[in-house]
Amino acid sequence: MSPVPVLPAIPGPPLAVNLRSAQLVYGGLTLFDGLDLDLTGGCFTCLLGSSGIGKSSLLRLLAGLTAIGVSGDLRGDDGLPLTGRVAWMAQQDLLLPWLNVLDNVTLGSRLRGERPDRPRALGLLARVGLADAALARPDTLSGGMRQRAALARTLMEDRPVVLMDEPFSGLDALTRLRLQALAAELLIGRTVLLVTHDPLEALRLGGHILVMSGRPAIVQTLPDLPGAPPRDPGDPAVQAAYRAILRLLEVVT
Amino acid sequence: MNAIRRGLATLAGVLLSWQMIIVIGELPPYILPNPWAVAVSLGRNAGSLLSHASVTTLEILTGMVLGTILGSGTALALGYSRRARRWLLPMLIASQAIPVFAIAPLLVLWLGYGMASKIAMTLLIIYFPVTANFYDGLRHVPPGWLDLARVMRPEPRRWAVLRHIALPAALPALASGLRIAAAVAPIGAVLGEWVGSSAGLGYLMLHANSRMQVDLMFAALATLATLAVGLYFAVDAALKRLLPWHSANPETTETG
User: Fold this and answer.
1) Which residue range forms the structural domain that includes residue A136?
2) What is the ipTM, given to two decimal places?
3) How far apart are CA A150 and CA A125, in angstroms?
C-alpha cells in the first residue's frame, strides 16, 4: 500500500459566506424573516436548533436548493454567488445503489462529464477507512461505512464551502463519535456549516456555534469555546456551554 | 431445488384434480379429455405443436421488444417534456378505455393474416404497462438524489441527471412493467391468431376445436402455458441479473 495521501490544499484563501434577509414562508407560517447568517471563512460552524425550526431549509438555501417560499441574498465574501463552490452532505448517505463505492465517490465528475480522478478517490477512501470497500456495493455496507463513503464523496468535490445536514444523526453513538472526529480532521481549512439538533455534537465540533430559535426564528452566536475540535464532551467548559444552549433552546429555564 | 419441487407438486395436484373431475363428473372425452390422452396427443403432434409454438414465440418476442422500445420512449418523453405530458398522457389513458379485443379484427384487416397483426396486438397490449410503470419510476426518483446532483452542478444539466440518476433509479420500475408485459404478451399474440391467421398456437387451437380434436386443443393449451410461464421466468431471471442492487434489497427478495 502507498502511504496515506495528503488532502489537497483548498485553492485560494478560505471563503466566507454571507446570507442577508433570508425568508421562509411555509404553509402560511413564517418560519424566519429578515434572517442574517455569516460563516467565517475556513471555520467549522455548527447551527443548532430544534426540529421544525427551519434549519434544514436554511442549509438548503445556502446549497442553492431553493424551494417555493424560500428567498435570501447569498454571496461569498468575494461578492460572487456561491454557485458551484458548495459541497452538500445530507442526513441520508444518498449513495446510489447501482454504483460501487468508488463510482459513488466520483459521481460529481461523471455528472459534469469530467474524467473521474480515481487515484484521488481511492486516496480519500483510504483516509475515511474504506480502502477495502472501494468496489463494494453500498447495500453491503453498514450505516457507518455508508456515511463514511458519503463523506469521501463530499470531500471529492473539493469545494471551499461544505454544508452538512445532520449527517451523523442516524448513526449509533460510538460510530457517530468516530465519524465526528474524522470529519473535523478532514474538513480543516474549509468553510463548514453543520446543521444539527444535538448540542453535544455542536460543542464537540464547532469553531463557532450558532443557535436558531423562536418563530420567526433568529440566529444567536454562542461565545467561542476554548480548545480545538473535536473537543472532549467531559470538558467543564463544554458542560457549561451545554447548559447555556439548553436555556437558549428553552429546554430548561 | 425447492422451487422445482414446489412446481412439480403443483403440477401433480392439478393433474390429479383434473382426473378426479372426469371420474366424478363422468365427463366424455370430447368435453374434457383425460391427462393421459392429452399427453399422447402432445407426443403425436409434437412436430406441428413445435412449429406453431415457434410462430407464436416469434410474435410474442418481437411484440415485446417493439412494445418495450415504444413504451420506454413514451415514458421518457412524458418524464422530460411538459408538452408531451399535456398531449400524450390524456391520449394514453383514453387509449386504455378501448379494449384491445375490440381492435383485433381491425388490425387483421389492416395488417393482414400474417405475423404483423399479431405483433401489433402484442405490442399494444404491453405498451401501457411498460409506459405507465417506467413513467412512474421516472417521476418518483428519490428527491435526495436529485438534490445531491443539483449541488454537483451537472453538465449538460438535464441529460446528465437523466443518464446518471433518474434512468438507473427508474429501472426497477421499468422491470416491474416488463414482468407484467411478459405475463400478458402471450394474450396479445393468441388473440391476434384467433381473429385471423394460418399459423400459431391460437390458430391450432381454433382449428382443433372446429374438428372436435379436444385432446389436441388441450395439448396446444399446455404448450402455450409452458411458453408463457417460461417467458415470465426468463424475463424475471434476466431482470434480476441486470438489476442486482434491486433484487438484493431484502424487502423485495423472496424468502423460503
Assistant:
1) 96-158
2) 0.88
3) 10
